[in-house]
Each structure stands twice: as structure tokens, then as C-alpha cells.
Amino acid sequence: MTSPGTVLDARALGRALLHRQWLVERHEAPPLDAVEHLVALQAQSGDAPYYQLWSRLAGFGTDDLSALLTGRQAVRVVMMRGTIHLVSARDALRLRAVVQPYLDRTLLATTAGRKVPGLDPPELADAARTALAAGPLHNDELGARLAARWPDAEPNDLAYLARSLLPLVQVPPRGVWGESGGLVYAHADQWLGASSATDTAADETVLRYLAAYGPASAADAQKWLSLTRLKVVFDRLRPRLVTYRDTTGRELFDLAGTELPDPAAPVPPRLLGPFDNVLLAHADRTRIIDKADERRVFTANGIVRGTMLLDGRVAGVWQPELKRTSAAVELRPFTALSGADKDRLAAAAADLLAFAAPEAEKTEVRFAAPG
């Protein structure tokens, strides 16, 4: 077992991350267990969580996650970093309270917040709560009702601010694979039939973060959770933690008694979904991606592309093309690949197409030129 105080290089940290993210081998586990293990799946695009779970779970099919959404066991709601995440019903009620201080602090600094000067956030929250009391509302209808109170504001801006003030879930068919539907909101308490938590303490969330993303620094946890001053939480938890150092001397925390994997152990190639957690959960991403390659994955308009891993590191991106009777995936490596690596990635891409487009009459895997 690795001794406390050991210096962990990027390879050791990367191997630990892949093991805890269930990316070394696919797990036999219910999708809801996976969602809660990962804490939350970033979900700006509706299909992203499906790909994220496919890469981690044996036998996972799109209907498995769709059923969680329609059965109200999982929901799409604003969470960390003010972005849409897919979380379990339980976490929608308890985790949102932990993140709420960030959402409150940044509300008026958002584009929508700056366009509504003099806004009283508690008043808007009360108005939105009242508007939704009778049941779910389309984004446009919610905005229109709020605009009756703030006629000088854009209705869409008011609805956007309301989803940061209150835990508003996106009602299916939003997020259901292969379905389309308007943006309809419901208050989480009504949709899930339970009361949201009010405890903002981050201690339990930090422990869950380390279980899925550690070892990590306090700055890493702050980046993932979008909160500041988490160092005091880590200090409070020290009796339950073990500490290491990275190659820059930064202190890293982990759950006491957690064994780290062999950094030299081989790992299989993987195709990771858009917005995958392994790229979003640390301030220092060098355990999984070279700094110079980040610009190839993170776009200027906030998209995080699907990526391919070789030897546990991001080696390129991929893009699907799903049509009614055909499906293709293009693999775009950053550098030239060996024949063996191309074969293994092509096999992974074929598996992805079998998952995403099982009824396609024609499928194609193609490689773009490296670069």
C-alpha cells in the first residue's frame, strides 16, 4: 500500500482516476448506482450522460437511463459550476443545497443577472415558486409569468435566473434518448415528492468526491464543486484522510485505507463521452490530458468533446454522425497511431455504434488525419 506522504506523478494519479471512474474495466452495476458513485454527470447535451455511462457499465443500453428519467429516479438540474447535470433523485434534493451558495454568489454576475439590474433574488425565487405551484411550466410560460412582475426584463432571462435560485428539474422527454421536447421545468420538491435539504455543509460531498476522483487537492475539489474555501473542510476531515504530494509539492488528499493501483498496469483504450467527468473534476488535469491538448477538447463556446484514451491519456477526439438508417463515428487522433492502436480504437468505435445506433443499416468507423 502506498505510504502517506508519497510523491505521486501524473501517471499514478491518472491510473487512480481511471480505476475510481470505472474506466479500467466495465462494471456490472445498476445505472443509478453508477450515477451516484460519480455524484453527477455533466449534461449540457442530452446524449452526453448516455455515452458516459456506456463507457463504464457492462450491458448498458440507452433505455436504462431513459427509464430512470421517466421514472423520476434521476433528473437533470443545475448543479456544479452552474451547469446542467444528471443526478439521482436523492442527490437532486441533497447536493443542490451544497452548491447553492455558489449559485447565489454568482447569480447577478451572469449574463442574465447583469441584464436585470436591481433584482431582488429572494423575491424572484418566491415568484417562481408560486408560478410552479400548480405544476410544471414550459420555459417560455415561466418567463412570461415572471415578466408580469418584472416587465422591463426579458422573460427568458428571468426563467434562467429562476433555475439558479430554485432546484428546477428539466421534465422528460427532455434528456430521454431519441426523444425531443421543449424545456419544461418543475420544482424538484414537487417532481420528486420530497423536501430539498437545507444543509450546505460540504463534508460528505468532499468524501464522495475523493472516492470517485481522488487523490486530489483542495483546489481540485473547489474546481469540481464550484465552491471556495474548501481547505477548511479538508482540515476538518483530516482524521479520515491520508495525504500525498504531487510532483510540484502540492498536498493531495485521499480516503484513509484506500489502496492505489499499480501505475505500470496496462489499461484498455476507451472512448469517453462529451463532458466526461474525468476532464472536469480537477484544477490540474495533467493526470489525464496534456496541457497543450486541452484546446483541442474544450471549445471556445463551452463544448467538451468526446475523447479517446490510449494508455490512460487523452489521445484524440471523436464525433458521431447518427442518421435515420446509417451511423458513423470519426476518430481524430492528435498524433500518428500505430496499427495496433488503430485496430483497438476502431473496435471500441464499432462497439459505440452498436450501442448508439443498434438499428442502423450501415455503420462506418473512419480516422481523420492526425493533428
Strand/helix succession: EHHEHHEEHHHEHHEEHHHHEEEHEEEHE
Query: What is the count of helical runs?
Result: 15
Task: Average the pLDDT over all residues and give the rounded result.
Answer: 96
Note the beta-strand portion. Answer: 15-25%
Q: How would you sum up the global shape?
A: globular
Structural class: alpha+beta
Low-pLDDT residue intervals, each spanning 5 or more residues? none
Write down the domain tally. Answer: 3
> Largest beta sheet: what is the strand line-up?
10-11-12-13-14
Distance between the termini: 40 Å
Structure summary, number of beta strands: 14
Q: Rg to the nearest angstrom?
A: 21 Å
Biggest β-sheet description: 5 strands, mixed
Helix content: 25-40%
Description:
The chain is α+β, with helices and mostly antiparallel strands. The chain has helices at 10-20, 31-37, 48-54, 62-70, 89-106, 111-114, 121-131, 139-147, 155-165, 188-192, 203-213, 218-225, 231-237, 294-297, 339-356; strands at residues 7-8, 41-42, 74-78, 84-88, 137-138, 168-170, 184-187, 241-246, 251-255, 270-272, 306-310, 313-322, 326-333, 362-367. The strands form 4 sheets. The protein has a 5-stranded mixed β-sheet, with helices on one face. A 3-stranded mixed β-sheet has the order 1-8-9. Strands 2-4-3 form a 3-stranded antiparallel β-sheet. The model has no long low-confidence stretch (mean pLDDT 96).
